[in-house]
Amino acid sequence: EVREKYGIPSTACVFGYCGRITRDKGMNELFKSFREVIKEREAYLMIIGAYDNPETIDQEVFEWAKKCPNVIFTGRQSQVSKYYSALDVFMSLSYREGFGLVVIEAAAIAVPGIVSDALGQRDTIVNGETGLLVKTKDIDSVIKAMTFCIENPEKIVEMGQKARLDVETKYD
């Protein structure tokens, strides 16, 4: 339903983020990485959430993202799980986090994550099993992880299934 609403082809890989749209959540790295990835591959980026100090984001890349037809800003949503279900991979590139609850929420519906190795973030996935760990503030490692996801859709489904099982065993 969400993919249809935004005209996203069923075959396209959809990366997504949910949370405050601000620099410290890794928005610069997310937008810059995605810009490079879609130069050679078809993908979409869905941004779920509200702006919070958007002036902290690199304005050149932010303006690019707002104009790019493959980047979708949904605004705040009350039915977040419906939007998670439209994603193939959840992105959480925060510089610091108490605990990445949004990664767990996405994993609960079998969406694996690409997660920064920041404290609190890295504890939400098992690298290579339930998602992929990338270096904080490192665009090259994010590009590599996103490219892997696009080129290995069957592995992403497998990681998503393992992520769901991981959530079932660790959380109520």
What this model shows, in words?
This protein is 40% helix and 17% strand. With 172 residues, it is of the alpha/beta class. α2 packs across α3 (59-67) and α2 packs across α6.
Give the key terms:
6-stranded parallel β-sheet; globular
Assign a percent range to the helix content: 25-40%
Shape summary: globular
User: What percent of residues are in strands?
Assistant: 15-25%
- Low-pLDDT residue intervals, each spanning 5 or more residues: none
Structural class by helix and strand composition: alpha/beta
Question: In whole angstroms, how far apart are the ends?
Answer: 28 Å
The count of β-strands is 6
* Radius of gyration over C-alpha positions, nearest whole angstrom: 14 Å
Main beta-sheet annotation: 6 strands, parallel
Q: Write down the secondary-structure element order.
A: HEHEHEHEHEEHH
Overall mean confidence score, pLDDT: 95
Strand order of the largest sheet: 3-2-1-4-5-6
Number of helices: 7
